[in-house]
Design brief:
By secondary structure, the chain is an alpha/beta fold. The chain has two domains: 5-199, 2-enoyl-CoA Hydratase, Chain A, domain 1; 203-249, Lyase 2-enoyl-coa Hydratase, Chain  A, domain 2 (Orthogonal Bundle). The protein is built from eleven helices and nine strands. The chain has helices spanning 29-44, 66-70, 77-94, 110-116, 144-152, 154-163, 169-175, 187-199, 203-216, 221-236, 239-249, and strands spanning 5-10, 13-18, 50-55, 99-103, 107-108, 120-124, 128-130, 166-168, 180-182. The strands form two sheets. The chain has a six-stranded mixed sheet with strand order 1-2-3-4-6-9, sandwiched between helices. The chain has a three-stranded mixed sheet with strand order 5-7-8. β1 (5-10) and β2 form a beta hairpin. α5 (144-152) packs across α6 and α9 runs antiparallel to α10 (221-236). The longest helix is centred in the N-terminal third of the chain and has 18 residues, at 77-94.
């Protein structure tokens, strides 16, 4: 189905794997378009209740494939962002299902942006994040200027962005960039724990909460109070709400369908 990514669905979990290990999963045109298609697919597949996003081999993603970019004549950076990266980030953030980043190795530049765009980040202690743009005289892109200060604060964001600092797994958790750091050997188990939870959780409510938290970054209290009320009506009409209430009254574990 795809040339540069792997895509699989099992037990409510879609796994999207960057598959250019020979170049540390660097991003060429084709892989970004394949990723856009894959995230569109998980949005419309009712079997999928959570996404695991990872990289094949030693890296998560080394960012833009500079060798591929150098072969393009009169390359427009803004056109590349508008066509390739920005639509992908929007699809990840607007997806009404949680995205778990399984960060198995380096996540640099746009690869770091992709990691930060995930809803949950589980990172190997041996891996690292780096906003490496400054090292080649470029600025943050693919959403990093939005995500980074919201996660670590403006002063630390400025330092990380302008110095291209490497942030290891444990430090990423301490800074609020990642949810959990474990040794690489334990990464799959840690990711499975998160994925297993979300695969059986009330997906409709979680999707609404994702939308609410996205909106809260640029909305005032009054707007959020109204938005909460609107979303709660939607959640309250769901099958999962009915199941949750019945399970509570019957003193049993709820079996959510995600609907």
């Amino acid at each position: 189905m795809y040339q540069f990514i792997k895509y699989a669905v099992a037990n409510g979990v879609a796994t999207i794997t960057l598959n250019r290990p020979e170049v540390y999963n660097a991003l060429n045109d084709e892989i970004t378009f394949e990723l856009q298609d894959a995230f569109k697919e998980v949005g419309r597949d009712d079997r999928v209740r959570v996404v695991v996003f990872t990289g094949e081999g030693k890296a998560f993603c080394a960012g833009q494939d500079l060798k591929a970019a150098m072969g393009e004549e009169k390359r427009s950076f803004s056109a590349s962002l508008h066509k390739r990266y920005n639509p992908l980030i929007r699809k990840m953030r607007n997806l009404k299902k949680p995205v778990i980043g399984r960060i198995n190795g380096v996540a640099a530049g746009a690869g770091c942006s992709l990691a930060l765009a995930c809803d949950i980040m589980v990172i190997a202690e041996e891996a690292y994040l780096t906003e490496v743009f400054v090292n080649i005289g470029l600025v943050l892109d693919s959403g990093s200027s939005y995500f980074l200060p919201r996660l670590v604060g403006s002063a630390k964001a400025f330092e990380l962005a302008t110095m291209g600092t490497r942030i290891g797994g444990k430090e990423a958790v301490a800074l609020g960039m990642a949810n959990k750091a474990v040794p690489l050997a334990d990464l799959d188990e840690a990711v499975r724990a998160y994925a297993g939870y979300y695969a059986t959780a009330p997906t409709r409510a979680i999707g609404l909460m994702k939308q609410m938290l996205n909106k809260s970054g640029h909305a005032g209290l009054e707007e959020m109070l109204e938005y909460e009320a609107w979303c709660q009506d939607i959640a309250g009409a769901s099958a999962d709400y009915a199941e949750g209430v019945n399970a509570f009254l019957e003193k049993r574990q709820a079996e959510f369908s995600g609907k």
